[in-house]
Amino acid sequence: MAIELKQQLKLSQQLVMTPQLQQAIKLLQLSRLELEQTVQQEIQENPVLEVIEIEEELPSELSREQEGADSESAEASGDRADSREASDADKIGDLDWQNYMDAYPQTGMSVIRDDDDRRGIEATLTRRETLQDHLEWQIGLSDLDDEHKSAASWILGNLDDNGFLRATIEEMARQSGLEEELIERTLMRVQQLDPSGVASRDLRECLLNQLAPNGIKDPLVRTLIDQYLDALQKRDFRRISRELGLSIEAVAAGANIVAQLEPRPGRAFGGDEPIYITPDIYVYKVAEEFHIVLNEDGLPKLKINSLYRDVLAKDRSVAKDTREYVQEKVRSAMWLIKSIHQRQRTIYKVMESIIRYQREFFERGIAYLRPLNLRDVADDIGMHESTVSRVTTNKYAHTPQGIFELKYFFNSSINRVQGDAIASESVKEKIRKIISNEDTRRPLSDQRIAEMLKTANIDIARRTVTKYREAMNILSSTRRRQVG
After folding, report:
1. How do residues 189-224 score in pLDDT, each as one tens digit?
2. Is 334:309 a contact under the CB 8 Å cutoff?
3. How does DSSP classify residue 260?
4. Multiple choice CATH, 412-480, 1.20.81.30, 1.10.10.60, 1.10.287.180, 3.30.70.2190
5. Residue 417 to residues 284, 456, 457, 468, Cα–Cα distance (Å)
6. 100: phi then psi, degrees, rounded to nearest 5
């Protein structure tokens, strides 16, 4: 069998992700804060981009027509070799701020934000005090000598965010070179600092250390913490009352006192700074219609610098490599501007579709949320599911019912006993209301809640009720039981 080489032509179609398309997809899934950072970075890297100041007047319709006529005149006067470049310059010249604004959906409304809605200046100029800072300040005011303060610094360095000590005396002594007895004495002093219960080694020690500072002298409370902490967590009051020979009411009264103690002393100091959500979309109801306003506060308004437009459109004496550089930067700037307003238009269309599907929610609340998936919205606006998924990621809408992430409006369905389906979020809301209205002395089990929902025409299994209850961080019936 002979082996030979052949050449042949083959035509095929394939999807190519151009850099421009990749940029548009990237901008589509960015959050509002990330978009602002990306735009600022592009402004620094691309000299062609220019930010429109607030005071700058937008060109009138007549001036835009005149600008288009000038571009056509410049194109006609050029030679044939430069006609393609003049055409590109004409397109670039047309992409001014007025056209950029025309590409955005307009609703005739503006977002007006009161000064009361903004963070106070003290919240931006001060740093939140940490547990470490709070304890070091108290140690600095104490009468401890340098050796004890050195041991205290080792103790503070081994505290976690909840205020618990996560190293043993032996480990700290080995690492610091200090005596164990010295560290033990210092630990007793640190445990007397504010907040009470700090530097404890476990939950039992934490709660016991809070009794004296809070003036709690009841021996039953100390006994409950010292010997029956596990039974308290399970709310097994019957076993405790039987072993101690007390009434259930007395045990419940002691348990209520224990419940008022802080199981995490560092809670008030732990955690990051709060992150305030700024909605990407505002939905207002005017008369009987819902109006959508895109939040562009803080997002720079971009345009092509007129100096670089003139370089391409009029100045023929510029060197070829300079013109190519300017053309590359201008194309990059045009794609960025187009991608941004395409992103805004897509968000607007998706929000319009969500309102059409979830109109009852916007008017009446969470209980009227309908089942919805990405395919429904994608088919409605004529886009792909992946596009809708990117649009709804890290985007928030301010609605008459509150602030919600766009992903919130997409949820699975639960079948009814009779009739159509109901949204899973609506079922969660019903479960929350049932539990909030239950008798705390006889809380409802998950099976009983499932039976109550079936009488309300919602077909749901007990394990599904358990899953939804745990997702809402609601305790089981045994842990919700109150005595007295």
Report:
1. 999 999 999 999 999 999 999 999 999 999 999 999
2. no
3. T
4. 1.10.10.60
5. 35, 9, 5, 19
6. -60, -40
In the prediction, which pLDDT does 115 show?
46
Domains 131-268 and 412-480 share a fold: yes
Bridge partners of residue 402, in order along the sequence: 399
Q: Could you count the other beta carbons within 10 Å of the beta carbon of residue 476?
A: 15
Q: Which backbone phi and psi does 196 adopt, to 5 degrees?
A: -65, 140
Burial, 302: exposed, middle or buried (Cβ in 10 Å; 0-12, 13-18, 19+)? buried
Taking the whole predicted model, whether its pTM rises above 0.85 is answered as: no
**Domain ranges (residues) in the chain:** 28-54+63-107+282-398, 131-268, 412-480
Q: How far, CA to CA in Å, does 420 sit from each of 99, 161, 166, 426, 456?
A: 46, 48, 54, 14, 13
The per-residue pLDDT for range 334-387, each reduced to its tens digit, is: 888 888 888 889 999 999 999 999 999 999 888 888 899 999 999 999 998 988
Report d(CA 279, CA 198) in Å as an integer.
Answer: 39
Question: For the domain 131-268, what is the CATH code?
Answer: 1.10.10.1330
Burial 459-475 (b: 16+ CB within 10 A, else e): ebeeebbbebbeeeebe
Closest of 286, 279, 280 to residue 109, by C-alpha:
286
C-alpha distance from residue 85 to each of 149, 321, 335 (Å): 75, 13, 17
Helices first, then strands: H and E counts in the chain: 24, 8
Is the CB of residue 279 less than 8 Å from the CB of residue 404?
no
